[in-house]
Design goal:
CATH architecture: Sandwich
Shape: globular
CATH topology: Jelly Rolls
Strand content: 15-25%
Number of helices: 3
Number of strands: 7
Largest sheet: 3 strands, antiparallel
Order of helices and strands: HHEEEEHEEE
Number of domains: 1
């Protein structure tokens, strides 16, 4: 996973015209605070509902504090992203792919010149508001 993260970070740095290792070295350094977190979402008991009347499980609406988050769905649905109009779109699981989310720290490092959003096809797109834009669909 660390290698995949570094490759994604290096591709992003290349796309921004920065030094190739500017982000990946933060993950590779011995003193790095990078982490691997494994989450499991067991099903709720029947009859347990939220105020909205729907079963709820997971972290709820949030942003990721890291540089990037790399997710693997293992053919399990549930990942949603907020579209620019404020509605939520479900991302279909794909066991052959990783999903890459832009984290808060990357936005701070770039002085918020990078924004992430979803297209109607459900693919994450990354728009760098300086000189270029590029897309990351699947990283295998």
């Amino acid at each position: 996973m660390k290698r995949v993260c570094c490759e994604v970070l290096e591709a992003m740095a290349d796309g921004l015209g920065l030094g190739r290792n500017v982000f990946s070295r933060m993950v590779r350094e011995e003193r790095s605070d990078s982490c691997l977190r494994v989450n499991r979402y067991p099903p709720l008991m029947c009859g347990v509902e939220t105020l909205s009347g729907q079963n709820l499980i997971g972290f709820g609406e949030h942003t990721d504090p890291q540089i990037i988050s790399v997710l693997r769905s293992n053919n399990t649905s549930g990942l949603q992203i907020c579209l620019t109009d404020g509605t939520w779109a479900s991302i279909p699981p794909d066991h052959s792919s990783f999903f890459v989310n832009v984290g808060d720290l990357l936005q701070v490092l770039l002085t918020r010149d990078i924004k992430d959003f979803a297209t109607s096809e459900g693919m994450r797109q990354f728009l760098i508001t300086k000189d270029i834009d590029f897309s990351l669909g699947h990283c295998v």
